[in-house]
Amino acid sequence: MVLAIVVALCIASFVTLNTAQGSDPVSTDTIGLGAEQSTKAAESQELPSSKMETGAQAVSDVSSTAETLQQTSQRTITVKDPDPVVEVAGVDTSNPEAVAAAEKIGETNPLPTAPRIAPDTSGPGWQTGMASAYDLETNQGWDATAIGITLTRDSMTVAVPESQDHLLGRLVEIVYDDKVVVATITDTGGFEKYGRALDLAGGVWKAFGVSSWEDWGVREVKYKFL
Description:
alpha/beta, six-stranded mixed barrel, 4 helices
């Protein structure tokens, strides 16, 4: 009986000892997992720094884009609209004095987008009168003028009444419907008795946008001798 109890005690002690020793691997594995978790935690703590660098770069890119847009906007704002101009619709290009006078009066080739304005005709020297029109056909084919310049269908010239023959060779600025023509006075005519101040050759009434002397007829113009 005593022997049986001793044997039982020996077996119980052996089993308890083995169980205690077998718990070591579990502890070791747990430590390993903890180390791995610690490493991952350390790596996760580095992410905010990387994100901050990416965010800083994004802010820099946005700032650069904003600066470029601002510069573009400033360049756009500095573009000026065309200034209003007086359009010189016609000029006697065969006469250098007429060309020089036209350059002082306005623009012979203004930008299409430039607003047109009428010249100031309120100053000294301006007159209002009736102007007729003529061409080679109405001049009975006669192409000679009082100052010896040949008359053509496109001559940028005018005739004045015979009583004003002292104006031959002078320039005249004529305004009609906000358009300006600078012509040379090359001839005289007997139209004063009809109440007319000027007689316009073909180049002049064409510059005013009329297709024939008949369409022009007799119209009121403003004019000034230069």
